[in-house]
Amino acid sequence: MIDTIVVVTRKTQLEELVLRLNSRAQARFYLEQNGVSFTDYEQADSRYHQSVEMVLRRLPRGVKRQVIDRDMLPTYQFGTRDLVLTIGPDGLVINTAKYLASQPILAVNPDPSRIDGVLIPFGVAEAGEWVVRVLEGKAHVSRLAMARATLNDGQTMDAVNDLFIGARTHVSARYSLELAGRREDQISSGIIVSTGAGCTGWMRSVATGAWQVARHFVELEGEPPGPAQLALGWEAERLWFAVREPFVSKISQANQVFGQIVAGEELVITSRMADYGVIFSDGIESDHLAFNTGLIARIGVADRRVHLVARELSE
Predict the structure, then answer these.
(1) Which of 57, 140, 194, 312 is 20 to 30 Å from 217 by CA-CA measure?
(2) What is the C-alpha separation between 106 and 274, in angstroms, rounded?
(3) DSSP per position, 185-249
(4) Residue 74 backbone phi and psi in degrees, to 5
(5) Is-contact 147 300, C-beta < 8 A?
(6) Residues 114 and 13: beta-carbon distance below 8 Å
(7) Which residues lie below 8 Å from residue 34, measured CB to CB, with a gap of 6+?
């Protein structure tokens, strides 16, 4: 049973710029001086706030509601009977999911002309209808698999889309990697681990780059790996991993640089980075785990799930 609808919003690019430059006039001057259209920022800002107001007006009466900004997520205490409604891009869904347990997320796309919305199935006009379906127990909820990094000091980090394991600066990451009993020392630009929800993003660009480099040296037919080849399914308990720019030397190998981690299996990474190793998730480098010499990370499918309301109706 749902007690409260928690609506999560975010500042627009224009609002963030105004905060940094202190006034709307300064923001306009800054953009136009750099040859950027202020009108585009202004229109996007207006469209977003109109969408938020439309969604709020469509929420059913008689149910408690709370509107919070994305910046409040780290300190906001979600209730076990909350329905969380996000209004914004895919990144907002991902940011919000990190702070939830089993609360369902209903993701609304405020501006389809600007936002692809891979994880956002609903438009503004239908938000109220789907909130009612959730309240009545008539909506299907997909359980998206997540990736988890567990350190030998007890710290953990989960990812909706991707984990990055490597160096925090533009230097080589040094570590040993072990999977399915095969172990080797590596030097690289870091390791990407992607879930079914994230594998057509960062992982796809890594695979595309590797394919395009390889075709200069060997005959490759067809096209680079596309979404269909990389797709795992959002609920699949499998992960892709890829080693970026592996370097072969007298002390490093590059035989295990791409593959899958299945349920019950772990990718074990032992850091050899004195004081610059990091693990972060979903592109948020500021929120990272230190991964320095002596630390061991075990990467696998998390026991948590993201509960995302989907269009498919339950029977």
Answers:
(1) 194
(2) 43
(3) EEEES-EEEE-TTTTTTHHHHHHHHHHHHHTTTS---S-S--HHHH---TT-SEEEEEESS-B-B
(4) -65, -25
(5) yes
(6) no
(7) none
* Cα R_g (the chain), whole angstroms: 22
What are the pLDDT digits (tens) for 33-79?
999 999 999 999 999 999 999 999 999 999 999 999 999 998 999 99
Q: List the chain domain ranges.
A: 4-138, 145-302
CATH number of 4-138: 3.40.50
Query: What token pair was written down for 134?
Result: 């959730």
Confidence (pLDDT) at 255: 96
**Fold adopted by 145-302:** Tumour Suppressor Smad4 (2.60.200)
Residue 189 tokens read as 């630009």
Q: How does pLDDT run across 147-173, given as a tens digit for each residue?
A: 999 999 999 999 999 999 999 988 999
Integer CA distances (angstroms), 47 to 15, 42, 43, in order? 13, 9, 6
Measured CA to CA, the distance from residue 140 to residue 130 in angstroms comes to: 10
Kindly write down the DSSP assignment for every residue of the chain, as one continuous string.
---EEEEEE---HHHHHHHHHSSHHHHHHHHHHTT--HHHHHHHHHHHHHHHHHHHHHSPTTSEEEEEEGGGTTT----TTEEEEEES-HHHHHHHHTT-SS--EEEEES-TTT---TT--EEGGGHHHHHHHHHTT-SEEEEEEEEEEEETTS-EEEESSEEEEEESSSS-EEEEEEETTEEEEEEES-EEEE-TTTTTTHHHHHHHHHHHHHTTTS---S-S--HHHH---TT-SEEEEEESS-B-BTTB--S--EEEEETT--EEEEE--SS-EEEEETT-TTSEEE--TT-EEEEEEEEEEEEEEESSPP-
